[in-house]
Amino acid sequence: MPLTRSEIREMLLARGTEQEEIFARARQAREECFGSTVVLRGVVEVTNVCRVNCDYCPMRRDNTRGNDRYFMSAEEIVSRATRIKDAGIDVILLQGGETPRELSAVEEAIPRIRELFDDRVEILLNLGNMRKAQYARLRETGATSYILKHETSDPALHRKLRHESLEERLRCMRDLLDLGYKVGTGLISDLPGQSLESVVDDIELAGEIGVHMCSVSPFVPAPDTPLQLGAPGSVDLALNVLACLRISYPGLLIPSVSALEKTSAGGQSRGLAAGANVMTVNFTGDSDRHRYLIYGKDRFVVKMRHVEELVRAADLRVRGSVFLDEEAPVVSR
Ligand code: SF4
User: In the CATH scheme, what is the homologous superfamily, with its name and number, of domain 5-319?
Assistant: First the structure.
């Protein structure tokens, strides 16, 4: 049963012992749905060029000229996917700014990656808003799942910080679900101008829209952005959101994101303690990785050893894609 609004509100403010009790409840919900497992993803960041102008992102459109732009070729993407396969990971996340230009390389790479894995692979995309026909084409090419974070469910704040329409974002999510994609959303907590009520809305939205995955990142005031002087988001609030998501919708895949670690050392370990069950390892090549400025040049890059250590310390074990299993856990729909 999803939590009520007043329960969520109360839980978001919890700290100390009360917070620990909520985390224990979230871990129990994870255990019942997924056992003691964490899904590993390998991410390849295919381009750092974006047509959108989010006020919190150094890869925003206004920075394009000053940034050292790159577009990976299909060859490079497949080569990176080979490394992910060698690491024993079967979820390939292809992520990049929102630009139509990289699509041909991605479309060319997807069938080759499927072949590499003998079709036992989840191809997860995070490439922004598109027309339904483009999503359909990627699906036919072999994409399995898609992340399209709503970021904030407050329509006015969404417009103010992303200069885009929330309604259009939600339209894209519905199109993806219609086409049979497993869909992930996500929110940023503590965005400047965001109310606690709006964070409650964000949590409820994940259930209402019927997604399969949801992430939460604390706001990071990144350099070279209009919000660079903002206060960093609270890791405690982000963790409480994570725990509320897990308790309300136990079957969701919820990552412990790098922004938790960037904001506070040990943040990703706390994410696992609050009920997360996904970790993403970065496989972008060295030269491109430094140009993918999601939180600026000094972002926290997640390596395999870091993930293995955290998973072991949390007394969990790694597993592959849940979407390739015949008996995938029931999700929030
Ligand atoms: S957050 Fe994503 S959509 Fe927004 S500017 Fe950055 S890369 Fe583009």
Answer: Aldolase class I (3.20.20.70)
Ligand 1 atom nearest residue 61's Cα: 5
**pLDDT of amino acid 300:** 80
User: Ligand 1 centre and the CA of 128: distance in Å?
Assistant: 8
Residues whose beta carbon lies within 6 Å of some atom of ligand 1: 50, 52, 54, 57, 59-60, 97-98, 128
pLDDT of residue 331: 42
Domain ranges of the chain: 5-319
Identify the segments of the chain with pLDDT beneath 70. Answer: 102, 326-333
Instruction: Answer yes or no: are the C-beta atoms of 41 and 279 closer than 8 Å.
Output: yes
Report pLDDT for 333: 35
Q: What is the pLDDT of residue 103?
A: 84
